[in-house]
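quick one, 317 residues, struct below
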Amino acid sequence: MSTMHPDPVTSTAPPAVAVRDLQVRVPSRDRAYAAPPEVLRGLTFTAPAGQVTALVGANGAGKTTALRAITTTLPFAEGALEVLGVELGPAHVPFPAHAAHVPDDPAYPDHWTAHDVARLRRRIDPDFDLRAFGAMLTTQGIAHDRRRSALSRGQITQLGVAAALAQNPHLLILDEPFARLDPLARTDLVDELRTLMAREDRSIVLATHDLEGMEHFVDHLVVVADGKDLIEGDVESLREDFLVLDAACDGSELRGTDAPLIGASTIGGRTRALVSTEDVAGLPPGSDLRRPTVSELVTHWLRAAGTVEHSARRTTA
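---
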């Protein structure tokens, strides 16, 4: 876990985001007269203050829908939602002023330049940091007078993130911020986000399907599938609660053990699965066990999503 973040054990601040039994229905564009399908099915998670929370799942899991509900751009049918201590309900409640949101595709008009974005932000927020905004764009190689239509999709994301960071937000919400970035741009963005997190009372909630290289950046993990939370917890605690089993077999001899296998797969004669540390006594002697990476935690739980009952979800404080 990044040492730049407050100790999650000693922090007494209320959560940055609290989601409880959230249900969201989104009308289908292709079937306008059909009943709206349920996209979120009782999603529950907490994003601790002062930490980086990653909402992780495959495409279509409900991550973007959750962020849209959190940022009040999409109404929710049932459940409860709190952002920076403000409860958001069916009645229109403005998104808290100290929070910033960068969607998957920032919707600036094609003819706009960075200057236009800055003018809009200054009109909304007089404290918008023009100097910081300009410095970030220069670092990313984005010309201030270049139109959005001439920018790559990755540069459009970087423009949106720069505008959000220049607001000096207490809570930054990002939807797939790394999806369109090359490795160098991705590293630069993580460095910018680390700078934000070095300040007091700052929190990040990001939705992503890729945690590669995030081992020492993400503090809190929420794995989502089919609009529900599969597992949630502090990253280091989760890595202590589970182990990766790597065995030279086809998996048949492991299925009869007393240790439930989570997301088991067999490739090249080797079976890999996630097992709870509480269940290792039920494994055959000599089983090869090691601590999982964050990516392995996510991969195995998502692989098991079709077979693990939702009641198996466990939360680590």
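Confidence is low (pLDDT under 50) at residues 1-10, 307-317.
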